Amino acid sequence: MSTANEPPPAAAPQNEAAATAQVDPRLVVQQEGFKGYLHEFTRKIKGGELGSLPVVVGLVLIWIVFQSLNSNFLSAQNLSNLSIDIVATGMISVGIVFVLLLGEIDLAAGSVSGVAAAVLAVLNVNKGWNPVLAIIAAVLVGTLLGFVHGWFFAKIGVPAFVVTLAGMLAWSGLQLQILGPNGTINLDNNGLVSKLTSSYFSQVVAAYGLAILAVAGFFAVSFLGNKRRKAAGVPSRTMTDLLIRTAGLAIVALGVAYILNQYKGLPVALLIFLIVCVLTDFILRRTSYGRKVFAVGGNIEAARRAGISVPWIRISVFMISGGMAAVGGIFAASRISSASQATGQSNVLMMAIAAAVIGGTSLFGGRGSTFSALLGMLVIQSIASGMALQGVSNSIQFMVTGAVLLAAVVIDSVSRRSQKAAGRA
One Pfam family from the UniProt entry (predicted)? Predict the structure, then answer.
């Protein structure tokens, strides 16, 4: 005879299933080996934990399709140019990722990048400032504008959409005011700013050295992380698992280095972009500040009760977005050796947001990585480059990019729904 305190007959199996689902994946791999890999991969797919898999698969398919249509698509020259073309908007997208992690949006990033480019050009060309000082001033201006957005959002309570929409309009006007009646300021083709996107490390050792350094750094960080986990008595990855992951990264990194060396070598712009992605990802993944950003994006009330200063986190991410938008504007000006009314306008903002979302950052907040900007820009620029080689009009490019963006958001929504069903959201 059952009592009121006894669980129903189905409770025990349900609890057992839940406990099984919560087993650390590292422990599963340790116990089951290759079978454990398959088990964990299947669990992630069913649970909606897709990570970067959809965008990587999509990028491979895009490259296969365009290479089959035009053999020049995967040529060293085209891929090298593509790696430079992603930098300007990619920098803006890195900042957008921080805002999206809070579940918010920054509609002023494009205009901020235009203002920063205008400030840089005026100080460097018209005022004769040292280019380094002009760059620093431009980034500070972008950061200040981001602070304005964050302050109105966090302190006054104005929705981020409205604040940044107002900023988009206001800063576009400020950009025109700074540039003056001519609307365009040409930069020195041989100056530091122009060389940011026109310079290469032509020595073969540069690209290969960077690849080897990246692989060694990945192995060292993973190995030390495993060592700390073992010392703490918690599950860690096996050495075989670590070596397989390192080997996969080595194949990709050395392959990219080989392709770049077939043209002019390692582009300086690409190197800077990769460094920015690594540093910002480190901030998000390995620092208390990054964990606070994820906490606020995941659950504001829980973060507040945990003692996190929610207003400061909100203000800071908009400052980061403004600063990165300024950096993107500088690279955009460098690419065409001028700052004009078109810098940061047109579809720059939409492409930056699309890149972050396509790369895997959730529009709902709490999930994403700054490497999303890199992957998303690779997808967008690959589509643009492939269609340009085919002579397809911009109108078709926009429609295809829009379809890819919609697909990314649908995958994100379905993924979140699957995670909720699995009790992991």
Answer: BPD_transp_2
